[in-house]
Design brief:
Layout (H helix, E strand, L loop, with lengths): L1 H12 L3 H23 L11 H26 L7 H12 L4 H9 L1 H24 L24
Helix pairs in contact: 1-2, 2-6, 4-5, 5-6
């Protein structure tokens, strides 16, 4: 957490408040979604699975982990062809600006940035919808009831 704040201050100091605000908003949305997911976890754990199911799950995990490791190895061992020099050379003539980061975000990758903003807006609308669906009864000191989605029974802590 302190490193997040210090990196935001570095962004602000070097005239990139848009990056600092983007980092802050992404972290807030991520924390809210994580807390909502943790809030709606079931209170009890299911019964332990049998040995055959554990072996099956272990085999699936090994295959998936091996596939992810092979993919990472294939991507990381490829020769690197950087396009940074092209962006640096074309930021003034192609985008009309000296701040290369802003030119990339606004001019060269404008539709991508618009798509990312749309995704954040849809996530915010989804969170608002989840909060509006979840109508919690007034909590009393004697009964601590938990909010549940429509059709789901409420549980008592």
């Amino acid at each position: 957490m302190p490193s997040d704040w210090s990196s935001r201050w570095v962004f602000v100091k070097f005239s990139a408040p848009d990056l600092a605000l983007t980092q802050l908003s992404v972290e807030v949305v991520t924390i809210v979604l994580l807390l909502l997911a943790l809030y709606f976890l079931p209170q009890t754990t299911p019964a332990e699975a049998g040995k055959s199911r554990r072996w099956r799950d272990g085999a699936i995990a090994l295959v998936a982990g091996g596939g992810a490791a092979a993919l990472a190895w294939a991507v990381l061992t490829r020769p690197v062809d950087s396009i940074a020099a092209w962006f640096l050379a074309n930021s003034v003539p192609g985008g009309g600006g000296r701040n290369v980061v802003n030119v990339i975000l606004v001019d060269f990758r404008g539709f991508d940035t618009f798509g990312e903003i749309t995704v954040l807006a849809i996530a915010a609308l989804g969170i608002l919808r989840c909060w509006s669906i979840c109508t919690c009864p007034v909590r009393r000191a004697t009964s601590m009831t938990r909010c549940a989605a429509p059709g789901m029974p409420t549980s008592t802590r």
